[in-house]
Design brief:
The protein contains seven helices and eight strands, in the order βαβαβαβααβαβαββ. It is α/β, with parallel strands linked by helices and 240 residues long. An eight-stranded mixed sheet has the order 3-2-1-4-5-6-7-8, with helices on both faces.
Length: 240
């Protein structure tokens, strides 16, 4: 059974003060999860948490977290261990796109490094920092929010930092899914699609935030016989 069928659990969503992350937090709160909503700016995290809690009646706690900062990751993990002392779902949503449209033949290496620090190292570090709590869950779920741009099977040109960061995140999904399968973990990557957010909107995205978030929430609330080690968009497998 999925946790949502058992009255919920505790879920942490990174980069959740706006856009897809915020909507994922809201949908999980609606399903009865206690949500730890993180953002780099503590005031923005608090404002989002208060609104979602008011709208859903769920327990939503704000947590300051910059996933690109190893010390911030360690501090956030220590805070979660202290209160609530449990974790069932981790959604690695925080991400940046700093080199969209830049050619791979003329790369901005500073932008690539910054992108990897957030999209890859940040998600990976946080997962490892919280792994002990997830191991104690009866239904541990990890969802890495990726992008079709990181699928090696259909890899194209341009935006090398963003593409490589998401390809690396997909690789970690496979590694962790394999190593943690016997412990009951389900670890998957999700592509929300081309969603009308602060990142996608200026590029002409038309998919709603609600629709983009729903596929992530599906993976976060999988039943125990659900898939692991996969890459999905709207509940359907994506080549990677």
């Amino acid at each position: 059974m999925a946790m949502s069928e058992q009255g919920g659990g505790t879920a942490l969503v990174t980069g959740a003060n706006r856009g897809i992350g915020r909507e994922v937090a809201r949908q999980l709160a609606e399903r009865g999860y206690r949500v730890l909503l993180t953002a780099r700016d503590s005031d923005q995290a608090s404002a989002a948490a208060e609104q979602i809690a008011g709208d859903t009646g769920a327990t939503v706690r704000a947590l300051a977290l910059d996933v690109s900062d190893a010390q911030s990751v360690d501090a956030a993990a220590a805070s979660v261990r202290a209160d609530p002392g449990r974790l069932d779902v981790l959604v690695n949503n925080a991400g940046v796109g700093l080199d969209f449209g830049i050619s791979g033949t003329a790369p901005d290496f500073d932008a690539i490094e910054q992108t990897l620090q957030t999209n890859f190292y940040g998600a990976y570090r946080l997962t490892i920092a919280l792994l002990d709590l997830l191991r104690n869950s009866a239904h541990p779920r990890i969802v890495n929010v990726s992008s079709g741009m990181g699928g090696v099977a259909e890899m194209g040109g341009w935006s090398p930092g963003y593409r490589v960061s998401k390809a690396a995140l997909n690789a970690v999904t496979r590694i962790l899914a394999t190593e943690l399968k016997d412990d009951g973990f389900l670890v998957n990557s999700a592509c929300p699609g081309f969603v009308k957010t602060d990142m996608g909107g200026p590029m002409g995205a038309s998919k709603s935030v609600e629709d983009g978030a729903s596929g992530i929430v599906w993976l976060a609330t999988l039943s125990d016989d659900g898939p692991t080690g996969g890459f999905f968009r709207d509940g359907r497998p994506v080549a990677f």
